[in-house]
Write a structure and sequence with these properties.
Shape: flat
Number of helices: 15
Largest sheet: 3 strands, antiparallel
Distance between the termini: 95 Å
CATH architecture of the largest domain: Up-down Bundle
CATH topology of the largest domain: Receptor-associated Protein
Length: about 400
């Protein structure tokens, strides 16, 4: 059976869209008529590699179909429960697709089920959609299928994706308040300088006395914002776009990633985030039966910093040449000492997956502590910055007024 997208008219004459399985387009049309739907367009999903638009229903291309972390975690959890209950894989995929309300997720699952019905393994079927299921995910599924423990492996995958989503959410939530506070502070200061200050300084125009330096600086800044503010805004936008495009070049991206690790606070955050990802991924892969060299290669790919990725490649090459994992990580010198020590302990007593999992949890806790301290400092610093700026504006306005009162 294959997956087909359709557009049809219901009894009320309204257009409805969806996905349905069938042996052929003709059978799908018959099934639609049995449901009192008048089929307008029926198109096979699995037969097209590129996106097409069928009356407003956008068919996702195989190479570009993607699942976010939340959807992937939910789908994996549902699939693990159904597989562990003894349901055949194709029926588990079909049931998971039916339970999902998102057409994109449903379409991806039905495409995977179509491949499974054609005789492909689950890992091979997911390999047709690399944007939805990355290499680490497929390697774990492949290990679960070969060992006969697909259900437990899928449960581990669900836990891993859920933990990853939770960590990303914590980082985003920690950054929201200080970012909004900083933007509001800048906006208030710019509005004061552009609309309030010009009206207040008009009282000094008729006075030929020398104004205080702070007042002259305020007037100059206000005039600059009024005359050049909009151009500075567009220049800033263009600069951001230019930097983002520049960072797509390998040489500049490498320089930026190297600079990240050297920055006082950001470097520590980047190292903590990447180390936690590396340890959690390597723990999951090694505990699921994936060979160590393959696990190291995949774990290195989940790291976002290219300098740390290169360090992981050096570790992989050293292990391939016969070195222990602990010694290889210690020689590279970019991994946190705690992670290296736990790896050494795990290799010594044969509990490497457990020690890696402990290391990942420790790195996440340390990351939360660093984020808490950093955000705790940024919030009062932003408030102080806004307060000092407003105080200087008020002082620059009041000083000439006080001088005029003395003169009178």
């Amino acid at each position: 059976m294959g997956a087909f997208s359709y557009r049809a008219l219901n009894e009320a004459g309204k257009s409805v869209k969806g996905v349905m399985e069938g042996d052929s387009e003709r059978q799908v049309r018959s099934l639609l008529r049995a449901k009192k739907l008048k089929p307008l367009e029926v198109t096979s999903i699995g037969s097209k590699d590129e996106a097409t638009d069928t009356g407003g229903f956008h068919l996702l291309p195989r190479r570009r179909a993607k699942l976010n972390t939340r959807d992937l975690s939910l789908v994996t959890r549902q699939l693990a429960s159904l597989v562990k209950s003894g349901l055949p894989l194709d029926e588990a995929l079909h049931a998971t697709a039916r339970q999902n309300t998102k057409q994109q997720v449903k379409q991806i699952l039905l495409q995977v089920r179509t491949k499974v019905l054609e005789g492909f393994s689950l890992a091979q079927a997911m390999g047709e959609l690399p944007g939805a299921f990355n290499e680490m995910y497929r390697a774990l599924v492949r290990a679960g299928e070969s060992s006969g423990y697909l259900g437990p492996v899928l449960e581990r995958l669900a836990d891993y994706t859920q933990n990853s989503q939770a960590m990303q959410q914590r980082i985003k939530l920690a950054m929201i308040y200080p970012t909004v506070l900083f933007i509001v502070s800048i906006s208030v200061i710019v509005l004061l300088m552009a609309f309030v200050v010009p009206d207040l300084v008009k009282i000094f125009d008729q006075n030929k006395r020398q104004l205080p330096l702070i007042t002259e600086m305020l007037i100059a800044t206000s005039n600059f914002i009024i005359n050049w503010g909009i151009y500075c805004f567009f220049a800033l936008v263009a600069l951001v776009i230019g930097i983002r495009r520049l960072l797509r070049i390998d040489a500049w991206q490498l320089r930026w990633h190297r600079l990240q690790l050297r920055l006082p606070v950001i470097g520590n955050l980047v190292r903590q985030v990447n180390s936690a990802r590396f340890a959690a991924t390597l723990s999951l892969l090694s505990s699921s039966g994936v060979p160590l060299l393959q696990a190291l290669t995949i774990a290195g790919q989940v790291m976002s910093n290219r300098i740390l990725q290169a360090s992981c490649e050096q570790v992989t090459n050293a292990v391939r040449e016969g070195s222990s994992l602990y010694r290889a990580m210690e020689n590279v010198g970019t991994f946190p000492p705690l992670l290296v020590q736990l790896v050494a302990s795990g290799e010594t007593n044969g509990t490497l997956p457990q020690q890696l999992d402990n290391a990942a949890r420790d790195q996440e806790r340390e990351l939360e502590d660093v984020l808490g301290v950093t955000m705790g400092l940024l919030e009062p610093l932003t408030i102080v910055f806004m307060g000092v700026s407003v105080c200087l504006i008020v002082l620059a306005i009041l000083l000439p007024i006080l001088d005029l009162n003395k003169l009178v």
